[in-house]
Design goal:
By secondary structure, the protein is mainly alpha-helical. It is built from 13 helices and 5 strands. The chain has 2 domains: 217 residues, 3-Layer(aba) Sandwich (Rossmann fold), CATH 3.40.50; 92 residues, Tyrosyl-Transfer RNA Synthetase. A 3-stranded parallel sheet has the order 1-2-3. It has a two-stranded parallel sheet with strand order 4-5. Helix 3 crosses helix 12, helix 4 packs across helix 7 and helix 7 crosses helix 8. The longest helix has 30 residues. The structure holds adenosine-5'-tetraphosphate (AQP). The site of adenosine-5'-tetraphosphate (AQP) has 21 residues, from helix 1.
């Protein structure tokens, strides 16, 4: 890991990331984020670097969530984390609303971040769409809370998919402005960690849109809870073009749907896109899609099976999250206290 300190201060490496329980987990969340979370947990075990992974329920409610669905989705997300290989004995796992320090530091950052910065956020523009006047204030302020999620742990590294890069850059801007305004070297310059063949998994129905939990079309995504039949059917019906697969990467230019399916195959089989194309170049989609479906079922079924098993004992999931929240608070509380001191608030 690189040293992420802004100037003279040494910040110990620490990893933080989160996912919104705003729907069921998708293959995009898994390949773009969770697999990286697990890699970083396992790679950093021996070095004592903490890995902290959150279910960001306060972000989820920036758009309407049915309360019962939010509860279920939060537990299911926790089950997805654990079933994918996150181990509560190795990583801190909790839901955001149990650690009030996130929202408390988030308020300080609302007063540091500038309106113009927030207005430039692509996700705000995409999610608020043409109806910005009717979007929640929380949706607009979301990136400042995300900065607080990260910086309340002085996290130096954040594994995310490509779509979150801009928010991590904004986190650095907020940290730099706080440090500059108060003449301190208190918050680190956090690095996004964006790696792998599938940092941006696209919709199965439209290769120009990212695969998303909140896409109205269930056929656009593979859910981590889909059974083998659903996975095979979604891949079979995935939009493609009529040409055979190329043997080289250049042949995927201007073919977003083909590129997406090849990227997914590469990520699931732990190969590079070049290696996959060397193997499948020249094949028609009628041959490639069943190969991809078999691979996806083989990789995802054990995870969905384990998620279902864990969901049978929701109390155990809740207990894991409560314990994780206690551990998280131990790190976050002194950082918040120091931030309040810097700002001049009496404690
Ligand atoms: N399609 C994707 N490809 C690669 N990575 C992805 N991520 C999400 N979709 C893809 C990564 O998953 C992490 C958690 O994302 P999130 O749930 O906090 O928010 P999101 O990016 O807005 O994800 P969704 O699925 O699109 O949720 P909704 O529909 O509620 O907005 C992040 O690291 C993200 O990059």
């Amino acid at each position: 890991m690189t040293d992420a300190a802004p100037t003279g201060t040494q910040f110990s490496p620490r990893v933080f990331s989160g996912i919104q329980p705003s729907g069921g987990l998708t293959l995009g969340n898994y390949l773009g984020a969770i697999r990286r979370f697990v890699d970083m947990q396992n790679a950093n075990q021996d070095s004592g670097i903490e890995t902290i992974y959150c279910m960001v329920d306060q972000h989820a409610i920036t758009v309407w969530q049915n309360p019962a669905d939010l509860t279920r989705n939060t537990r299911e997300l926790a089950a997805g984390y654990i079933a994918s290989g996150l181990d509560p004995a190795k990583s801190i796992l909790f839901n955001q609303s149990q650690v009030a320090e996130h929202a408390q530091l988030g308020w300080l950052f609302n007063c540091v971040a500038r309106m113009g910065w927030m207005q430039r956020m692509t996700q705000w523009k995409d999610k608020a769409g043409k109806n910005q006047q009717n979007a929640s204030l929380g949706l607009f302020a979301y990136p400042a809370l995300m900065a607080a999620d990260i910086l309340v742990y002085h996290a130096t590294h954040v594994p995310v998919g490509e779509d979150q890069k801009q928010h991590v850059e904004l986190t650095r801007d907020i940290a730099a402005k706080f440090n500059h305004d108060f003449g301190v070297d208190f918050f680190p310059m956090t690095e996004p960690v964006i790696e792998g063949a599938a940092t941006r998994v696209m919709s199965l129905r439209d290769g120009s849109k990212k695969m998303s939990k909140s896409d109205p079309s269930d056929m656009s995504r593979i859910n981590m809870t889909d059974d083998a039949e659903a996975i095979a059917s979604k891949i079979r019906k995935a939009r493609t073009d009529p040409d055979a697969l190329p043997s080289e990467v250049d042949g995927l230019a201007e073919r977003p749907e083909a590129r997406n399916l090849v990227n997914i195959y590469a990520a699931l089989s732990d190969q590079t896109v070049d290696q996959v194309l060397a193997d499948v170049g020249g094949k028609q989609f009628s041959e490639f899609k069943p190969m991809l479906a078999d691979l996806a079922v083989a990789k995802l079924s054990p995870i969905s099976g384990e998620m279902a098993r864990l969901m049978e004992t929701p109390d155990e999931i809740d207990a894991i999250l409560r314990k994780g929240a206690d551990q998280a608070r131990e790190i976050a509380a002194p950082v918040l206290k120091k931030a309040y001191d810097i700002v001049g608030m009496i404690r």
